[in-house]
Amino acid sequence: MLKFLAAALTTILICSMTLGAMFTLIAATNYVVSLQSGLFRGLAFAAELALGVVLLLGTVWLATHLAVRIFRPKPGSTSDISAGGLSSGPSSGQGSL
């Protein structure tokens, strides 16, 4: 139940952050377009690109970071990866051509 609640809150948080980043970038674009000087417009365009990269990559980083923290296995649990068919040893037939 706690994982479900954390996943739902994380989804709401990430969607709201992405929507906020989009509104911020639209407002920045409207400001950049309204500038008269070509030099200042070019500098503002470069700053807008940097802002977009920081906002959107930050949102993606936070989403993946929270997803890993929510769905990682508990520290005391043991999971056998080879039981799921993901073994890469010579017995799985991948070692010979």
Give the helix proportion (percent range): 55-70%
> How many runs of DSSP E, i.e. beta strands?
0
> What is the rounded Rg?
23 Å
Number of helices in the DSSP assignment: 2
What is the domain tally? Answer: 1
H-E order? HH
Strand count, sense and barrel status of the largest sheet are: none
> Strand percentage, roughly?
under 5%
Mean of residue pLDDT values: 83
* Low-confidence residue ranges: none
Outline: elongated
Distance between the termini: 47 Å
Helix-and-strand structural type? mainly alpha
Oligomer: single chain
TL;DR?
The protein is mostly helical and about 100 residues long. The chain contains 2 helices and no strands. The protein is elongated, with a radius of gyration of 23 Å.
Protein described:
With 97 residues, the chain is mostly helical. It has one domain (2-72). It contains 2 helices and no strands. Helix 1 (2-34) runs antiparallel to helix 2. 0% of the residues are buried.
Task: Give the topology.
Blueprint: H1 2-34, H2 38-71
Helix pairs in contact: 1-2
Structure keywords:
97 residues; mainly alpha; 2 helices
